[in-house]
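FIELD: query
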Amino acid sequence: MLHQGGTARIRNAFGGGELIEGNASFGTTTKSNYQLKFDAPVLADPSKRAELVGFATDRDLTLSASCRESLQGAQARLKTTSRFGYHELAYEAVARHLHSFEPYASIS
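FIELD: result
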């Protein structure tokens, strides 16, 4: 399986401990995968962080399901630590699209 990709990161992007990260990869089964993440402290408190992520993936499933699958989505997370441990509240929304069905694809 062939796979290529790269990641770029900008730390302390606006002077407040933020992180901007983007990555992309390309391969044979996963045709393309993109992600862009923004992470920043909440109210200048390094133990509380907010994270926003956007992503898109295109997969070739013709060997197992006779189609291709595209996903686009976003995630939002709030992370914090306390004397009781690590806590995370997250929400994720994803749109999934199956397409490019082969003529011999099963209905199921």
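FIELD: remark
The radius of gyration is 18 Å.
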